[in-house]
Amino acid sequence: MKISVIGCGYLGAVHAASMAEMGHDVVGIDVDEAKIAQLAAGTAPFFEPGLPEILRAGLASGRLRFSTDFADAASADVHFVAVGTPQVAGGDAADMRYVDAAFSSLLAHAKTGDLLVGKSTVPVGTAARLADLVASTVPGATLVWNPEFLREGFAVQDTIQPDRLVYGVPEGAAGEHAARVLDKVYASAVSEGTPVIVADYATAELVKVSANAFLATKISFINAMAEIAEVTGADVTKLADAIGHDARIGRRFLNAGVGFGGGCLPKDIRAFSARARELGKGEAIAFLDEVDKINLRRRTRVVQLASEAVGGDLAGKRIAMLGLAFKPHSDDVRDSPALDVSMKLADAGADVVATDPQAIERARMLAPHLTYESSIEETLRGADVVVLLTEWPEFVGLDPVAVGSLVAGKRVIDGRNSLDPAAWREAGWEYRGLGR
Ligand SMILES: NC(=O)C1=CN([C@@H]2O[C@H](COP(=O)(O)OP(=O)(O)OC[C@H]3O[C@@H](n4cnc5c(N)ncnc54)[C@H](O)[C@@H]3O)[C@@H](O)[C@H]2O)C=CC1
Ligand SMILES: O=C(O)[C@H]1O[C@H](OP(=O)(O)OP(=O)(O)OC[C@H]2O[C@@H](n3ccc(=O)[nH]c3=O)[C@H](O)[C@@H]2O)[C@H](O)[C@@H](O)[C@@H]1O
């Protein structure tokens, strides 16, 4: 099938390359010339395992190309829109200007019979609004909302083998036809029995934001238990194991620590709250404000632990920060707890030296005042406190005996509860986790 993907960021670039990998003819379009030049040259503009391989394979096969010219979308029949929906400056709502601009550019080249497929995460009601625009601009074209559930770090696998597909379609024959076309786009996943949920626009939009709201709530639930564990001497990791054995609860997404970050969970719960307030139903999901607050309190707690570890005054103390990305296997530092805590520690006068296997360059753009080191050993050298905030395997696998000789003070704060406290304590370290 002939496909265009508008917006080639973390979602769109993976989607475009994966569609080509699945056998479709794909053009990826973005307004960012540098990004398109990189993609066209076969270089992934961000770190995502498996993307370089399918990107190069797609380009070599001739099935994948990239452009900054929306006219190149004209030859496609199915157009995915995957542009950003960040938080507006100074508010909680989603900034819809990129989605609106992308649809307006795309509609200038779309034709009767085309399928316009929204993938961006949007406030409920967006699809209905855009469907009117599509109908009045390109009669006979159909708008569908097909939210995306991929996780960074597993994005290629999640795109090619999703755990479910959700199609938000209009009522009637146009909607039925649209669902059949999407079944063909995702033929390999559909033939493997991937559940397909066909719904109205509002349900499809809400599935996406409620899924992220649930995940965020689960993380904040366990982090709230961590706060209680901290004042009672309980161990939140054991608590999570114990409640996680109940299949109704489940152990996944119950890892207490410095909390969630990234380009999605934080901004999605805020945008959902803002939209609910607009709809006069803010009270229905007011608990998401608490979810957000619990999450942000964990960052403050890490700063407090670091301060306690050095006797109360961070000024001039050398802090070795292990991790900058919002999670391992990603270079994404958007709303990253690790980067946020690094900046808070630097604001308090600490001499922060940070390392990350993939995220240093992106972190440097947001926080040029911090010191970055590519070597773990050099990061640790002379440190008064070591703080682990992104659980990359190379950090989790550190030998506490071997690295003990590098630091000035054997104090470690395990912001992801991913180290073995007994092993670190045995090697002479003062170990502090979160909620244990
Ligand atoms: N990153 C992720 O893991 C996932 C993201 N999403 C959603 O997907 C959307 C995109 O997210 P990301 O890819 O992370 O953002 P991103 O910021 O990495 O990428 C957005 C891209 O859109 C481009 N763009 C902006 N305006 C444009 C326009 N008018 N025409 C063409 N391109 C334009 C930007 O240059 C950028 O390359 C968001 O709504 C996000 O919530 C959904 C699921 C997973
Ligand atoms: O809408 C999106 O963009 C995506 O958001 C999340 O994916 P992602 O942001 O890639 O990362 P997650 O694996 O969900 O982790 C999010 C954050 O929660 C933190 N986390 C996760 C799990 C846990 O138990 N504890 C915890 O603190 C991670 O460290 C990370 O900072 C969702 O998992 C995806 O399904 C969704 O498509």
Automatic annotation (TrEMBL):
Gene3D superfamilies: Cytochrome c1, transmembrane anchor, C-terminal, NAD(P)-binding Rossmann-like Domain. NAD(+) binds at residues 30, 35, 85, 121, 152, 267, 334. Substrate binds at residues 149-152, 208, 253-257, 261, 327. The keyword Disulfide bond does not apply. InterPro entries: 6-PGluconate_DH-like_C_sf, NAD(P)-bd_dom_sf, UDP-Glc/GDP-Man, UDP-Glc/GDP-Man_DH_C, UDP-Glc/GDP-Man_DH_C_sf, UDP-Glc/GDP-Man_DH_dimer, UDP-Glc/GDP-Man_DH_N, UDPglc_DH_bac. Belongs to the UDP-glucose/GDP-mannose dehydrogenase family. Residues 320-421 form the UDP-glucose/GDP-mannose dehydrogenase C-terminal domain. The active site is at 264 (nucleophile). Keywords: NAD, Oxidoreductase. GO terms for biological process: polysaccharide biosynthetic process. This is UDP-glucose 6-dehydrogenase. Its EC number is 1.1.1.22. It comes from Leifsonia poae. Pathway: Nucleotide-sugar biosynthesis; UDP-alpha-D-glucuronate biosynthesis; UDP-alpha-D-glucuronate from UDP-alpha-D-glucose: step 1/1. GO terms for molecular function: NAD binding; UDP-glucose 6-dehydrogenase activity.
